[in-house]
Amino acid sequence: MVKSISALNFRPSVESKTGERKGTKPLPEPTSIQQVLLLMVVHLCRKILFIDPNIKVGIYIMLVFFGSILGDVLPIPNSYFSRKDNIFNIYFVKLSWGWTMVFVGSFVYLTSSVYSCGDKTKIRKHMLRLLFATFMWFFWTKLFVTIEESYGYCSKPIVRSSNSRKQCLSKGLSWNSFSISGHTFILIYCTLIIMEEAKALVCWEAIKDHLRNEEHNRTSEESGSATPLDCLSAEQLLFVRDKYEKFTPYIRLSFIAMAMLALLWDIMLMATIIYFHSTPEKFVASVIAVLLWFFSYRFLFSRRLLGVPLPGEGTFRYMNPVQPLQMLYMRRASLITKTEKTSSFMGMPLSPPKVGGDVSTGKSASFLETSRPAPR
What we know:
- A hairpin with a 2-residue loop joins β3 (344-345) and β4 (348-349).
- The strands form 2 sheets. The protein has a two-stranded antiparallel sheet. A two-stranded antiparallel sheet has the order 3-4.
- It contains 14 helices and 4 strands.
- The longest helix has 42 residues, at 234-275.
- Mean pLDDT is 80; it is low at 14-21, 324-340 and 350-376.
- The chain is mostly helical.
- The chain has helices at 2-8, 14-18, 33-49, 53-73, 87-93, 96-115, 120-150, 164-170, 182-197, 206-219, 234-275, 279-300, 323-336, 365-371, and strands at 153-154, 175-176, 344-345, 348-349.
- α4 (53-73) packs antiparallel against α9.
- The protein is elongated.
């Protein structure tokens, strides 16, 4: 009886514990409170920018059309936004292209420097998207002004010249013309560009895990799970690790600024819809902005007709540009069908999914998704 009790109370010795085999896969470093708070803000900004652009485009078209009609019919009282000299109109909307290019340009340069491994040729190709957008903005805004000045007339007869509009306005008269809304055009176009370029942040935080696992695979004798970085040389891997740690804080700040700009542009678009221009002038401007976005990002860049890649395409593949839409569809499907509940924080799973992983190689479903070719 005593022997049986002592057998039940047996505890392994310290030597037997230390002799057990331990895992060698590196663990992520602890996150500070400041980083957690910053990631929470970034997560909220994702809710603003990671919206299906096709849905956003439909909302813009319907909002401009029906909102303009309601603004013309209903007696909407004046407000601070109905004044042309309000601070948001003077210092932001009139300089909206400059604000957008400053933050989007810095975001594109910093992110492309990382996933292009410092290749200047690839970085320039990514910056060409913004150069093309700037050319389109300049061309169409000048065309709008030309149409207004060439096909308008003064409220009182004057001698027509190349400066007829200025002469008419200088005499205190009114110039009647079809004035395509430049504000509607630029606000919609800027927002769509911000949403497209922001896709480079999809799976950006996963690069840190890929770096840690890839360095472990190259220094350890054991073969670990494959990473998207296994195609890089030692110098490229060192460059990516250095620039990722250095640029990521600035990339997050640029992303937050882009989200704030997109939110401000939507607010000012509502003010333009309610208080300024006629319905046809705003509707034509919105259609031109949407068609220009579709031509550039859905046709020109996606087919690489000019050799310009889409955001996030570089030396290694770390993201799927349609992943935000796939996550949106998965959330919609979860409302209809019953799925296994997993713990998550700020939309990110705390543990890898049990279904869809490769047990033999240790690949998770998220990596398989990112390594899979994007659907056409």
